[in-house]
């Protein structure tokens, strides 16, 4: 587990833009994060059923998300709005 990124327990599915949204703390800074449907599909989510299933899936791959988020932050892959979007 990567200790430099701490995820808050606030994951929610945004059906309008088809992504999971949550927040994290990285080196003391607040970071808004999004996991796109494509990212989730690449990690093994077969279909979008409902928010409960999606969030449970995210919990199962939490360590992968942490590693991917850490790498994206290291690579400065934040949007112009400062949102970390994992595709």
Please identify the structural class as seen in this structure. Answer: alpha+beta
Instruction: State the low-pLDDT regions, or none.
Output: none
Mean pLDDT: 90
CATH topology: Double Stranded RNA Binding Domain
Order of helices and strands: EEEEHHHE
CATH level-1 class: Alpha Beta
Q: DSSP strand (E) fraction?
A: 25-35%
Helix segment count?
A: 3
Number of domains: 1
Descriptive overview:
With 87 residues, the chain is α+β, with helices and mostly antiparallel strands. The mean pLDDT is 90. It has helices spanning 37-42, 51-60, 62-74, and strands at 5-7, 12-14, 19-26, 29-36, 83-86. Strands 1, 2, 3, 4 and 5 form a five-stranded mixed sheet that branches. It has one domain: Shew3726-like (Double Stranded RNA Binding Domain, 2-Layer Sandwich), CATH 3.30.160.140. The two termini are 21 Å apart. A hairpin with a 4-residue loop joins strand 2 and strand 3.
How is the topology of this model organized?
Elements: E1 5-7, E2 12-14, E3 19-26, E4 29-36, H1 37-42, H2 51-60, H3 62-74, E5 83-86
Parallel strand pairs: 4-5
Antiparallel strand pairs: 1-3, 2-3, 3-4
Any descriptors?
3 helices, 87 residues, five-stranded mixed sheet, single chain, globular, Double Stranded RNA Binding Domain, alpha+beta
What's this model, at a glance?
With 87 residues, the chain is of the alpha+beta class. It is built from three helices and five strands, in the order ββββαααβ. Strand 3 and strand 4 form a beta hairpin.
């Amino acid at each position: 587990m990567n200790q430099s990124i701490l995820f808050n327990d606030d994951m929610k599915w945004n059906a309008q833009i088809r992504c999971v949204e949550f927040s994290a703390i990285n080196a003391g800074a607040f970071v808004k994060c999004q996991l796109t449907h494509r990212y989730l599909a690449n990690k093994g989510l077969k279909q979008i059923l409902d928010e409960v299933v999606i969030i449970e899936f995210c919990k199962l791959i939490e360590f992968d998300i942490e590693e991917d988020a850490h790498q994206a932050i290291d690579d400065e892959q934040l949007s112009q709005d400062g949102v970390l979007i994992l595709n």
